[in-house]
Amino acid sequence: MSVTITSFGYLHAPPPAAHLTVDLRNHFRDPHVSPALRYLTAEDQEVRETVLRTPGIVPLLDALAGAVRAYQAGPTPGPVTVAVGCAGGRHRAPTVASELGYRLAEHAGPPVTVHHRDLPKPVVTR
Fold first, then answer.
1. CA–CA distance from 81 to each of 9, 19, 21, 97 (Å)?
2. How many domains does the chain have?
3. Residue 120 DSSP code
4. Is residue 31 part of a domain?
5. Is 125 inside a domain boundary?
6. Whose CB has fewer CB within 10 Å in the chain, the N or C terminal residue?
7. Is the pTM higher than 0.70?
8. Assigned domain for 17 exists
């Protein structure tokens, strides 16, 4: 009943296969638009704080954690995969993926693995 969470950027490649795929592109402000944040990543505290303060992100995280738990409670237990995407995969998606992983792991549940597919890639020119 492990959980694997992968963050990714739609501008780099198609989403990975997953039970749940979350698209953050259209509903949540992109830190990329801020010149001060553009070249930072989710590894930087300022980016994480900006994303987590975005209206709607905390309720989304609550809902995602609940959805993962619902999959785990189903009659056929097994691993659950979650894909979290944004435009470039450097700000919103890895922040949400990491926070979701933290929330799921903090209750000593099944093992949680978080992978950031596109975090190390260069900023996409848009």
1. 17, 5, 9, 11
2. 1
3. T
4. yes
5. no
6. C
7. yes
8. yes
